[in-house]
Amino acid sequence: MLSDILHAQQVLLLFKKRAVQHIVISPGSRNAPLTISFTNDSYFKCYSIVDERCASHFAMGIAQQLKQPVAVVCTSGSALLNYYPAVTEAFYSEIPLIVLSADRPPHKIDIGDGQTIRQQHVYANHILYDTHLEMINSLDDQEAMATNERLINKAINVAITNHGPVHINIPFEEPLYNTVNVPKVDPKVVDPIIETNASIPSLFIDRWEKANRKLVILSTLNPDVFTQDQLNLITSDPTVLVISEVSSNIRHEKIIWGIDTLIAPIENDEDAIAHLQPDMVVTIGGMIVSKKIKQYLRRFETQYHYHIGNRRAYDTFFKLAGHIKTAPTHWVDQLSINETSDSYRDYWLQFFNNYLIKRTDYLAAIPWSDFRAFNLIFDSLPDDIVLQLGNSSTIRYAQLFPMNPTHTVFSNRGTSGIDGSTSTAIGAAVAQDKPTVCITGDLSFLYDSNALWNNYIPANFKIIVINNSGGGIFRILPGEKDNHTFDTYFETTHQLDASHLCKMYDINYHRVDGEDAFAKAYEKFLNDNSKPQLLEIFTPRLENDTVLLDYFKFLK
Protein backbone atom coordinates (compact mmCIF):
# COMPACT_ATOMS: atom_id res chain seq x y z
CA MET A 1 0.00 0.00 0.00
CA LEU A 2 1.32 3.43 -0.93
CA SER A 3 0.03 6.91 -1.63
CA ASP A 4 -1.82 7.44 -4.89
CA ILE A 5 0.02 10.78 -5.31
CA LEU A 6 2.51 10.27 -8.12
CA HIS A 7 5.35 12.46 -6.89
CA ALA A 8 5.14 10.78 -3.46
CA GLN A 9 5.60 7.47 -5.29
CA GLN A 10 8.65 8.88 -7.06
CA VAL A 11 10.26 9.76 -3.73
CA LEU A 12 9.52 6.36 -2.22
CA LEU A 13 10.79 4.34 -5.17
CA LEU A 14 13.97 6.34 -5.72
CA PHE A 15 14.84 6.18 -2.02
CA LYS A 16 14.36 2.41 -2.19
CA LYS A 17 16.46 2.05 -5.31
CA ARG A 18 19.18 4.27 -3.82
CA ALA A 19 19.22 2.37 -0.48
CA VAL A 20 18.09 5.29 1.68
CA GLN A 21 16.56 2.94 4.22
CA HIS A 22 16.28 4.79 7.55
CA ILE A 23 13.34 7.21 7.68
CA VAL A 24 12.63 9.31 10.80
CA ILE A 25 9.07 10.62 10.73
CA SER A 26 7.45 13.29 12.88
CA PRO A 27 3.65 12.93 12.96
CA GLY A 28 1.57 15.33 10.90
CA SER A 29 -1.12 15.50 8.27
CA ARG A 30 0.40 17.19 5.24
CA ASN A 31 3.19 14.57 5.13
CA ALA A 32 0.64 11.70 5.15
CA PRO A 33 1.43 10.62 1.55
CA LEU A 34 5.07 10.05 2.52
CA THR A 35 4.28 8.52 5.90
CA ILE A 36 1.80 6.04 4.43
CA SER A 37 4.21 5.06 1.67
CA PHE A 38 7.33 4.58 3.79
CA THR A 39 5.67 2.80 6.71
CA ASN A 40 3.84 0.31 4.50
CA ASP A 41 6.97 -0.85 2.71
CA SER A 42 8.94 -3.42 4.71
CA TYR A 43 12.22 -2.32 3.11
CA PHE A 44 12.29 0.88 5.17
CA LYS A 45 13.20 1.17 8.83
CA CYS A 46 10.85 3.87 10.09
CA TYR A 47 10.98 5.72 13.40
CA SER A 48 8.30 7.98 14.89
CA ILE A 49 9.65 10.90 16.93
CA VAL A 50 7.27 13.74 17.72
CA ASP A 51 9.71 16.57 18.50
CA GLU A 52 11.25 17.59 15.18
CA ARG A 53 14.36 19.04 16.79
CA CYS A 54 15.02 15.70 18.51
CA ALA A 55 13.96 13.72 15.42
CA SER A 56 16.48 15.42 13.16
CA HIS A 57 19.36 14.98 15.62
CA PHE A 58 18.33 11.34 16.11
CA ALA A 59 18.47 10.87 12.32
CA MET A 60 21.84 12.58 12.24
CA GLY A 61 23.16 10.14 14.86
CA ILE A 62 22.13 7.21 12.66
CA ALA A 63 23.79 8.80 9.61
CA GLN A 64 26.90 9.58 11.68
CA GLN A 65 27.38 5.88 12.40
CA LEU A 66 26.29 4.40 9.07
CA LYS A 67 27.98 7.08 6.93
CA GLN A 68 24.94 6.84 4.67
CA PRO A 69 22.03 9.23 3.99
CA VAL A 70 19.19 9.14 6.49
CA ALA A 71 15.90 10.96 5.85
CA VAL A 72 13.68 13.02 8.13
CA VAL A 73 10.06 13.61 7.18
CA CYS A 74 7.85 16.38 8.56
CA THR A 75 4.60 18.17 7.93
CA SER A 76 4.38 21.76 6.73
CA GLY A 77 4.83 25.01 8.63
CA SER A 78 6.95 25.43 11.74
CA ALA A 79 7.86 21.73 11.78
CA LEU A 80 10.74 22.03 9.34
CA LEU A 81 12.13 25.09 11.17
CA ASN A 82 12.77 22.81 14.13
CA TYR A 83 15.09 20.77 11.91
CA TYR A 84 17.36 23.77 11.43
CA PRO A 85 19.79 23.14 14.35
CA ALA A 86 20.44 19.62 13.05
CA VAL A 87 20.70 20.86 9.47
CA THR A 88 23.44 23.32 10.43
CA GLU A 89 25.22 20.66 12.49
CA ALA A 90 25.06 18.22 9.58
CA PHE A 91 26.29 20.98 7.26
CA TYR A 92 29.43 21.71 9.29
CA SER A 93 29.98 18.12 10.47
CA GLU A 94 29.46 16.86 6.90
CA ILE A 95 26.79 14.27 7.70
CA PRO A 96 24.39 13.13 4.92
CA LEU A 97 20.95 14.17 6.17
CA ILE A 98 17.98 14.36 3.78
CA VAL A 99 15.10 16.63 4.80
CA LEU A 100 11.73 15.81 3.24
CA SER A 101 9.28 18.58 4.08
CA ALA A 102 5.64 18.42 3.04
CA ASP A 103 4.15 21.69 1.82
CA ARG A 104 0.96 23.27 0.52
CA PRO A 105 0.62 23.83 -3.22
CA PRO A 106 2.21 27.15 -4.29
CA HIS A 107 -1.15 28.89 -4.77
CA LYS A 108 -2.02 28.25 -1.11
CA ILE A 109 1.01 29.99 0.35
CA ASP A 110 0.40 33.36 2.04
CA ILE A 111 -3.40 33.18 1.84
CA GLY A 112 -3.96 32.61 5.57
CA ASP A 113 -3.97 28.80 5.84
CA GLY A 114 -2.66 27.41 9.13
CA GLN A 115 0.77 25.75 9.37
CA THR A 116 1.81 27.44 6.16
CA ILE A 117 5.08 29.34 5.76
CA ARG A 118 7.45 30.12 2.89
CA GLN A 119 9.28 26.80 2.91
CA GLN A 120 11.33 27.01 -0.26
CA HIS A 121 15.00 27.81 0.43
CA VAL A 122 14.36 28.05 4.18
CA TYR A 123 17.82 26.54 4.87
CA ALA A 124 19.52 28.56 2.14
CA ASN A 125 22.72 29.39 4.03
CA HIS A 126 23.35 25.90 5.42
CA ILE A 127 22.28 23.41 2.79
CA LEU A 128 24.25 21.68 0.04
CA TYR A 129 21.27 21.30 -2.26
CA ASP A 130 17.74 22.66 -2.01
CA THR A 131 14.92 21.78 -4.36
CA HIS A 132 11.13 21.94 -4.75
CA LEU A 133 9.28 19.14 -6.53
CA GLU A 134 6.63 19.59 -9.17
CA MET A 135 3.08 18.48 -8.43
CA ILE A 136 2.06 15.67 -10.78
CA ASN A 137 -1.64 15.12 -11.32
CA SER A 138 -1.48 12.79 -14.30
CA LEU A 139 0.81 10.25 -15.93
CA ASP A 140 0.57 12.41 -19.04
CA ASP A 141 2.69 15.08 -17.33
CA GLN A 142 5.94 13.54 -18.51
CA GLU A 143 7.94 16.76 -18.28
CA ALA A 144 7.16 17.23 -14.57
CA MET A 145 7.87 13.56 -13.89
CA ALA A 146 11.26 13.80 -15.58
CA THR A 147 12.05 16.98 -13.66
CA ASN A 148 11.25 15.39 -10.30
CA GLU A 149 13.23 12.29 -11.16
CA ARG A 150 16.28 14.45 -11.88
CA LEU A 151 15.84 16.58 -8.74
CA ILE A 152 15.42 13.65 -6.34
CA ASN A 153 18.42 11.83 -7.82
CA LYS A 154 20.53 14.94 -7.56
CA ALA A 155 19.57 15.50 -3.92
CA ILE A 156 20.57 11.95 -2.97
CA ASN A 157 23.81 12.19 -4.98
CA VAL A 158 24.83 15.46 -3.35
CA ALA A 159 24.20 14.08 0.13
CA ILE A 160 26.39 11.06 -0.69
CA THR A 161 29.26 12.71 -2.55
CA ASN A 162 29.44 16.05 -0.72
CA HIS A 163 28.71 14.63 2.75
CA GLY A 164 26.06 16.95 4.08
CA PRO A 165 22.39 17.92 4.29
CA VAL A 166 19.97 18.37 1.39
CA HIS A 167 16.37 19.56 1.37
CA ILE A 168 13.50 18.33 -0.82
CA ASN A 169 10.33 20.40 -0.40
CA ILE A 170 7.25 18.52 -1.61
CA PRO A 171 3.85 20.17 -2.21
CA PHE A 172 0.75 18.04 -1.67
CA GLU A 173 -2.88 18.85 -2.40
CA GLU A 174 -5.75 17.15 -0.63
CA PRO A 175 -6.93 14.41 -0.53
CA LEU A 176 -3.80 13.18 1.26
CA TYR A 177 -4.81 9.69 2.43
CA ASN A 178 -5.84 7.84 -0.74
CA THR A 179 -3.78 4.74 -1.50
CA VAL A 180 -3.05 2.21 -4.24
CA ASN A 181 -1.46 -1.23 -4.08
CA VAL A 182 0.80 -0.92 -7.11
CA PRO A 183 2.96 2.10 -8.01
CA LYS A 184 2.15 3.83 -11.26
CA VAL A 185 5.63 5.24 -11.85
CA ASP A 186 9.09 3.67 -12.26
CA PRO A 187 11.71 6.41 -11.83
CA LYS A 188 15.22 5.82 -13.13
CA VAL A 189 18.37 5.97 -11.01
CA VAL A 190 21.15 8.43 -11.79
CA ASP A 191 24.31 7.29 -10.03
CA PRO A 192 26.71 9.83 -8.51
CA ILE A 193 30.10 10.61 -10.01
CA ILE A 194 32.73 9.68 -7.42
CA GLU A 195 35.97 11.67 -7.59
CA THR A 196 39.22 9.74 -7.27
CA ASN A 197 42.11 10.87 -5.10
CA ALA A 198 43.73 14.06 -6.32
CA SER A 199 47.47 14.15 -6.83
CA ILE A 200 49.68 15.90 -4.28
CA PRO A 201 50.82 19.25 -5.74
CA SER A 202 54.56 19.54 -6.33
CA LEU A 203 54.57 22.94 -4.58
CA PHE A 204 53.28 21.32 -1.40
CA ILE A 205 55.86 18.52 -1.63
CA ASP A 206 58.65 21.05 -2.06
CA ARG A 207 57.52 23.13 0.92
CA TRP A 208 57.03 20.02 3.07
CA GLU A 209 60.54 18.75 2.36
CA LYS A 210 62.14 22.12 3.13
CA ALA A 211 60.27 22.76 6.40
CA ASN A 212 62.13 21.70 9.55
CA ARG A 213 59.22 22.27 11.94
CA LYS A 214 55.98 20.80 10.66
CA LEU A 215 52.88 20.74 12.87
CA VAL A 216 50.13 18.26 11.96
CA ILE A 217 46.79 18.74 13.77
CA LEU A 218 44.31 15.87 13.78
CA SER A 219 40.80 17.01 14.70
CA THR A 220 37.37 15.38 14.21
CA LEU A 221 37.74 12.16 12.21
CA ASN A 222 35.88 8.92 11.78
CA PRO A 223 37.53 5.90 13.42
CA ASP A 224 40.22 3.96 11.55
CA VAL A 225 41.11 6.69 9.07
CA PHE A 226 44.79 5.71 9.31
CA THR A 227 46.39 2.29 9.65
CA GLN A 228 48.93 1.70 12.40
CA ASP A 229 51.68 1.53 9.75
CA GLN A 230 50.66 4.94 8.41
CA LEU A 231 50.71 6.46 11.89
CA ASN A 232 54.14 4.93 12.44
CA LEU A 233 55.30 6.45 9.16
CA ILE A 234 54.18 10.01 9.81
CA THR A 235 55.48 9.98 13.40
CA SER A 236 58.87 8.63 12.32
CA ASP A 237 59.87 12.00 10.88
CA PRO A 238 61.68 14.04 13.58
CA THR A 239 60.66 17.29 11.88
CA VAL A 240 56.96 16.46 12.28
CA LEU A 241 55.04 17.06 15.50
CA VAL A 242 51.58 15.47 15.45
CA ILE A 243 48.97 16.64 17.94
CA SER A 244 45.47 15.19 18.14
CA GLU A 245 42.12 15.99 19.66
CA VAL A 246 39.88 13.53 21.45
CA SER A 247 37.44 13.55 18.51
CA SER A 248 40.17 12.44 16.08
CA ASN A 249 39.86 8.83 17.30
CA ILE A 250 43.64 8.51 16.94
CA ARG A 251 46.04 7.35 19.65
CA HIS A 252 49.77 6.78 19.25
CA GLU A 253 52.75 6.96 21.60
CA LYS A 254 54.40 9.64 19.48
CA ILE A 255 51.29 11.80 19.11
CA ILE A 256 50.48 14.46 21.71
CA TRP A 257 46.87 13.92 22.78
CA GLY A 258 46.48 16.92 25.11
CA ILE A 259 46.73 20.14 23.11
CA ASP A 260 45.60 22.44 25.92
CA THR A 261 47.78 20.65 28.46
CA LEU A 262 50.76 21.34 26.19
CA ILE A 263 50.03 24.97 25.33
CA ALA A 264 48.28 26.56 28.32
CA PRO A 265 51.30 26.47 30.67
CA ILE A 266 53.59 28.16 28.12
CA GLU A 267 51.19 30.86 26.92
CA ASN A 268 53.34 33.62 28.39
CA ASP A 269 56.72 31.94 27.88
CA GLU A 270 57.99 33.65 24.76
CA ASP A 271 61.02 31.35 24.35
CA ALA A 272 58.90 28.21 24.50
CA ILE A 273 56.24 29.68 22.25
CA ALA A 274 58.85 30.68 19.68
CA HIS A 275 60.33 27.19 19.74
CA LEU A 276 56.92 25.62 19.17
CA GLN A 277 56.18 27.91 16.22
CA PRO A 278 55.99 25.72 13.08
CA ASP A 279 57.19 26.54 9.58
CA MET A 280 54.19 24.71 8.19
CA VAL A 281 50.82 23.55 9.52
CA VAL A 282 48.77 20.66 8.13
CA THR A 283 45.24 20.05 9.39
CA ILE A 284 43.28 16.84 8.89
CA GLY A 285 39.66 16.41 9.98
CA GLY A 286 36.76 18.64 10.90
CA MET A 287 36.36 21.55 13.29
CA ILE A 288 39.15 22.07 15.84
CA VAL A 289 37.98 22.05 19.46
CA SER A 290 40.96 23.68 21.15
CA LYS A 291 40.59 27.43 21.33
CA LYS A 292 44.16 27.68 22.61
CA ILE A 293 45.78 26.18 19.51
CA LYS A 294 43.68 28.43 17.28
CA GLN A 295 44.68 31.54 19.22
CA TYR A 296 48.31 30.46 19.32
CA LEU A 297 48.65 29.84 15.58
CA ARG A 298 46.90 33.10 14.74
CA ARG A 299 49.60 34.99 16.63
CA PHE A 300 52.47 34.01 14.35
CA GLU A 301 53.51 34.38 10.75
CA THR A 302 53.55 30.67 10.04
CA GLN A 303 54.19 30.59 6.33
CA TYR A 304 51.85 27.87 5.14
CA HIS A 305 48.72 26.06 6.27
CA TYR A 306 47.38 23.20 4.16
CA HIS A 307 44.24 21.17 4.77
CA ILE A 308 44.30 17.53 3.69
CA GLY A 309 41.13 15.57 2.94
CA ASN A 310 37.79 15.75 1.22
CA ARG A 311 36.26 17.72 4.07
CA ARG A 312 35.92 21.45 3.64
CA ALA A 313 39.03 23.52 4.25
CA TYR A 314 38.67 26.42 6.70
CA ASP A 315 41.12 29.28 6.95
CA THR A 316 41.15 28.82 10.73
CA PHE A 317 44.52 30.48 11.28
CA PHE A 318 44.18 33.08 8.47
CA LYS A 319 47.10 31.46 6.63
CA LEU A 320 45.49 28.85 4.36
CA ALA A 321 47.78 28.16 1.40
CA GLY A 322 45.84 25.30 -0.12
CA HIS A 323 43.31 22.49 0.16
CA ILE A 324 44.52 19.10 -1.05
CA LYS A 325 41.36 17.12 -1.79
CA THR A 326 42.60 13.63 -1.27
CA ALA A 327 42.16 10.92 1.33
CA PRO A 328 44.52 11.48 4.28
CA THR A 329 45.79 7.91 3.82
CA HIS A 330 46.77 8.70 0.23
CA TRP A 331 48.65 11.79 1.44
CA VAL A 332 50.59 9.85 4.09
CA ASP A 333 51.60 7.21 1.56
CA GLN A 334 53.24 9.92 -0.58
CA LEU A 335 55.31 11.45 2.23
CA SER A 336 59.07 11.57 2.28
CA ILE A 337 60.82 11.25 5.67
CA ASN A 338 63.38 13.82 6.79
CA GLU A 339 66.51 12.26 8.35
CA THR A 340 67.69 15.33 10.26
CA SER A 341 69.05 14.97 13.79
CA ASP A 342 67.34 18.19 14.94
CA SER A 343 64.14 16.79 16.40
CA TYR A 344 61.23 19.19 16.63
CA ARG A 345 59.07 16.18 17.49
CA ASP A 346 61.17 14.76 20.34
CA TYR A 347 61.63 18.11 22.07
CA TRP A 348 57.90 18.63 22.43
CA LEU A 349 57.12 15.01 23.24
CA GLN A 350 59.55 15.26 26.14
CA PHE A 351 58.03 18.59 27.16
CA PHE A 352 54.57 17.01 27.17
CA ASN A 353 55.67 13.88 29.04
CA ASN A 354 57.15 16.06 31.78
CA TYR A 355 53.72 17.66 32.16
CA LEU A 356 52.09 14.23 32.42
CA ILE A 357 54.34 13.34 35.33
CA LYS A 358 53.37 16.53 37.13
CA ARG A 359 49.63 16.17 36.39
CA THR A 360 49.53 12.88 38.29
CA ASP A 361 50.36 14.76 41.50
CA TYR A 362 47.72 17.39 40.76
CA LEU A 363 44.95 14.89 40.03
CA ALA A 364 45.72 13.02 43.25
CA ALA A 365 45.35 16.18 45.32
CA ILE A 366 42.28 17.95 43.89
CA PRO A 367 38.98 18.04 45.79
CA TRP A 368 35.60 16.82 44.52
CA SER A 369 34.88 18.82 41.36
CA ASP A 370 34.11 18.50 37.66
CA PHE A 371 37.78 17.74 37.02
CA ARG A 372 37.83 15.00 39.66
CA ALA A 373 34.58 13.49 38.37
CA PHE A 374 35.83 13.36 34.78
CA ASN A 375 39.07 11.77 35.95
CA LEU A 376 37.14 9.00 37.72
CA ILE A 377 34.81 8.49 34.74
CA PHE A 378 37.54 8.20 32.10
CA ASP A 379 39.59 5.93 34.36
CA SER A 380 36.80 3.40 34.65
CA LEU A 381 34.72 3.40 31.46
CA PRO A 382 34.42 -0.12 30.01
CA ASP A 383 36.29 -1.11 26.85
CA ASP A 384 34.82 -1.24 23.37
CA ILE A 385 32.09 1.40 23.64
CA VAL A 386 30.87 4.30 21.52
CA LEU A 387 31.44 7.48 23.50
CA GLN A 388 29.20 10.45 22.65
CA LEU A 389 30.41 13.72 24.18
CA GLY A 390 28.27 16.79 24.79
CA ASN A 391 29.53 20.27 24.04
CA SER A 392 30.78 23.18 26.16
CA SER A 393 32.54 21.86 29.28
CA THR A 394 32.23 18.15 28.49
CA ILE A 395 34.27 18.06 25.29
CA ARG A 396 36.84 20.44 26.78
CA TYR A 397 37.37 18.33 29.88
CA ALA A 398 37.64 15.24 27.68
CA GLN A 399 40.55 16.94 25.87
CA LEU A 400 42.51 16.79 29.15
CA PHE A 401 42.48 12.98 29.39
CA PRO A 402 43.99 10.19 27.29
CA MET A 403 41.22 8.23 25.61
CA ASN A 404 40.87 4.47 25.81
CA PRO A 405 42.05 3.15 22.40
CA THR A 406 39.09 0.74 22.23
CA HIS A 407 36.60 3.63 22.34
CA THR A 408 35.19 5.42 19.31
CA VAL A 409 34.44 9.05 20.09
CA PHE A 410 31.86 11.38 18.55
CA SER A 411 30.60 14.86 19.32
CA ASN A 412 28.48 17.45 17.52
CA ARG A 413 31.38 19.75 16.74
CA GLY A 414 29.97 21.30 13.58
CA THR A 415 28.23 24.25 15.19
CA SER A 416 29.21 23.09 18.70
CA GLY A 417 25.79 23.84 20.16
CA ILE A 418 24.32 22.17 23.23
CA ASP A 419 21.10 21.27 21.42
CA GLY A 420 20.67 17.70 20.27
CA SER A 421 23.62 15.97 21.99
CA THR A 422 21.46 13.34 23.69
CA SER A 423 19.20 12.85 20.65
CA THR A 424 22.25 12.32 18.42
CA ALA A 425 23.71 9.84 20.89
CA ILE A 426 20.47 7.82 20.95
CA GLY A 427 20.33 7.74 17.14
CA ALA A 428 23.94 6.57 17.09
CA ALA A 429 23.13 3.86 19.64
CA VAL A 430 20.27 2.60 17.46
CA ALA A 431 22.50 2.38 14.40
CA GLN A 432 25.14 -0.01 15.75
CA ASP A 433 25.55 -2.87 18.22
CA LYS A 434 28.20 -1.52 20.60
CA PRO A 435 27.11 -0.09 23.97
CA THR A 436 26.85 3.71 23.83
CA VAL A 437 27.70 6.07 26.68
CA CYS A 438 26.66 9.71 26.40
CA ILE A 439 28.43 12.21 28.68
CA THR A 440 26.82 15.63 28.87
CA GLY A 441 26.34 18.67 31.05
CA ASP A 442 23.21 19.59 32.97
CA LEU A 443 22.10 22.48 30.73
CA SER A 444 22.73 20.48 27.56
CA PHE A 445 20.79 17.54 28.96
CA LEU A 446 17.84 19.63 30.13
CA TYR A 447 17.76 21.55 26.85
CA ASP A 448 17.43 18.27 24.92
CA SER A 449 15.33 16.39 27.47
CA ASN A 450 12.72 15.48 24.83
CA ALA A 451 15.40 13.14 23.49
CA LEU A 452 14.10 10.67 26.08
CA TRP A 453 10.63 10.84 24.47
CA ASN A 454 11.80 8.06 22.22
CA ASN A 455 10.65 4.46 21.87
CA TYR A 456 13.93 3.21 20.37
CA ILE A 457 16.48 3.73 23.18
CA PRO A 458 18.51 0.49 23.52
CA ALA A 459 18.47 -1.13 26.95
CA ASN A 460 22.26 -0.81 27.22
CA PHE A 461 22.28 2.95 26.48
CA LYS A 462 23.77 5.04 29.29
CA ILE A 463 23.86 8.77 30.05
CA ILE A 464 26.21 10.53 32.46
CA VAL A 465 25.06 14.04 33.41
CA ILE A 466 27.55 16.34 35.15
CA ASN A 467 25.29 18.66 37.14
CA ASN A 468 27.16 21.72 38.39
CA SER A 469 23.93 23.73 38.76
CA GLY A 470 24.41 25.90 35.69
CA GLY A 471 26.55 26.78 32.71
CA GLY A 472 29.88 26.14 34.42
CA ILE A 473 31.91 26.96 31.31
CA PHE A 474 31.06 30.66 31.77
CA ARG A 475 32.93 30.67 35.09
CA ILE A 476 36.27 30.04 33.36
CA LEU A 477 35.75 32.86 30.85
CA PRO A 478 36.84 36.45 31.53
CA GLY A 479 34.37 38.78 33.17
CA GLU A 480 32.85 39.64 36.52
CA LYS A 481 31.21 36.71 38.31
CA ASP A 482 28.88 36.02 41.22
CA ASN A 483 26.39 38.80 40.78
CA HIS A 484 22.74 38.76 39.74
CA THR A 485 23.41 39.43 36.06
CA PHE A 486 26.06 36.71 35.76
CA ASP A 487 24.12 34.11 37.76
CA THR A 488 20.86 34.73 35.91
CA TYR A 489 21.83 35.55 32.33
CA PHE A 490 25.19 33.82 31.82
CA GLU A 491 25.65 30.89 34.16
CA THR A 492 21.85 30.45 34.54
CA THR A 493 22.04 28.76 37.92
CA HIS A 494 19.34 26.23 38.86
CA GLN A 495 18.51 23.53 41.41
CA LEU A 496 17.00 20.98 39.01
CA ASP A 497 17.85 17.30 38.68
CA ALA A 498 16.98 14.52 36.26
CA SER A 499 15.18 12.16 38.65
CA HIS A 500 11.62 13.06 37.66
CA LEU A 501 12.41 12.89 33.93
CA CYS A 502 13.89 9.43 34.44
CA LYS A 503 10.79 8.28 36.30
CA MET A 504 8.53 9.58 33.53
CA TYR A 505 10.54 7.88 30.75
CA ASP A 506 11.28 4.64 32.69
CA ILE A 507 15.04 5.14 32.90
CA ASN A 508 16.99 3.89 35.91
CA TYR A 509 18.35 6.85 37.87
CA HIS A 510 21.55 6.95 39.93
CA ARG A 511 22.65 9.97 41.97
CA VAL A 512 26.19 10.84 43.08
CA ASP A 513 26.83 13.78 45.42
CA GLY A 514 30.51 13.15 46.16
CA GLU A 515 33.46 10.85 45.64
CA ASP A 516 32.49 8.45 48.42
CA ALA A 517 29.25 7.58 46.62
CA PHE A 518 30.77 7.43 43.15
CA ALA A 519 32.20 3.91 43.01
CA LYS A 520 29.08 2.10 44.24
CA ALA A 521 26.65 4.04 42.03
CA TYR A 522 28.96 3.84 39.02
CA GLU A 523 29.20 0.05 39.25
CA LYS A 524 25.41 -0.33 39.31
CA PHE A 525 25.08 2.16 36.47
CA LEU A 526 27.52 0.28 34.22
CA ASN A 527 26.40 -3.26 34.97
CA ASP A 528 22.62 -2.90 34.72
CA ASN A 529 21.57 -3.42 31.11
CA SER A 530 17.93 -4.22 31.82
CA LYS A 531 16.90 -0.72 30.70
CA PRO A 532 18.59 2.62 29.90
CA GLN A 533 20.55 4.10 32.82
CA LEU A 534 21.28 7.69 33.85
CA LEU A 535 24.00 8.66 36.30
CA GLU A 536 23.76 12.22 37.60
CA ILE A 537 26.92 13.53 39.24
CA PHE A 538 26.60 16.71 41.31
CA THR A 539 29.69 18.91 41.66
CA PRO A 540 30.28 22.19 43.55
CA ARG A 541 29.35 25.10 41.30
CA LEU A 542 31.69 27.65 42.86
CA GLU A 543 34.84 25.49 43.01
CA ASN A 544 35.00 23.88 39.55
CA ASP A 545 36.54 26.80 37.67
CA THR A 546 39.29 27.28 40.27
CA VAL A 547 40.28 23.60 40.16
CA LEU A 548 40.51 23.68 36.35
CA LEU A 549 42.42 26.95 36.04
CA ASP A 550 44.83 25.91 38.82
CA TYR A 551 45.67 22.80 36.79
CA PHE A 552 47.40 24.88 34.12
CA LYS A 553 49.10 27.05 36.76
CA PHE A 554 50.37 23.91 38.51
CA LEU A 555 51.91 22.58 35.29
CA LYS A 556 53.59 25.91 34.68
Automatic annotation (TrEMBL):
Indicate the segments forming the Thiamine pyrophosphate enzyme TPP-binding domain, all copies.
394-537
Q: EC number(s)?
A: 2.2.1.9
So which cofactors does this thing need? Answer: thiamine diphosphate; Mg(2+); Mn(2+)
What detail does the entry give on cofactor binding?
Binds 1 thiamine pyrophosphate per subunit.
Q: Which InterPro entries match?
A: MenaQ_synth_MenD, THDP-binding, Thiamin_PyroP_enz_TPP-bd_dom, TPP_enzyme_TPP-bd
The catalytic activity, as recorded, is: isochorismate + 2-oxoglutarate + H(+) = 5-enolpyruvoyl-6-hydroxy-2-succinyl-cyclohex-3-ene-1-carboxylate + CO2
Its annotated pathway? Quinol/quinone metabolism; 1,4-dihydroxy-2-naphthoate biosynthesis; 1,4-dihydroxy-2-naphthoate from chorismate: step 2/7; Quinol/quinone metabolism; menaquinone biosynthesis
Indicate yes or no for the key word DNA repair: no
Keywords from the named record: Magnesium, Manganese, Menaquinone biosynthesis, Metal-binding, Thiamine pyrophosphate, Transferase
Q: Which residues form the Thiamine pyrophosphate enzyme N-terminal TPP-binding domain?
A: 9-116
Q: Does the keyword Manganese apply?
A: yes
Q: Which domain of life is it from?
A: Bacteria
Biological processes per GO annotation: menaquinone biosynthetic process
What CDD domains does this protein's entry cite? TPP_PYR_MenD, TPP_SHCHC_synthase
- Molecular-function annotations in GO: 2-succinyl-5-enolpyruvyl-6-hydroxy-3-cyclohexene-1-carboxylic-acid synthase activity; magnesium ion binding; manganese ion binding; thiamine pyrophosphate binding
Cite the Gene3D superfamilies for this sequence.
Answer: 3.40.50.970, TPP-binding domain
Assembly information from the UniProt record? Homodimer.
Q: Which family does it belong to?
A: Belongs to the TPP enzyme family. MenD subfamily.
Outline what the protein does: Catalyzes the thiamine diphosphate-dependent decarboxylation of 2-oxoglutarate and the subsequent addition of the resulting succinic semialdehyde-thiamine pyrophosphate anion to isochorismate to yield 2-succinyl-5-enolpyruvyl-6-hydroxy-3-cyclohexene-1-carboxylate (SEPHCHC).
What name goes with this protein? 2-succinyl-5-enolpyruvyl-6-hydroxy-3-cyclohexene-1-carboxylate synthase
Originating species: Nonlabens ulvanivorans
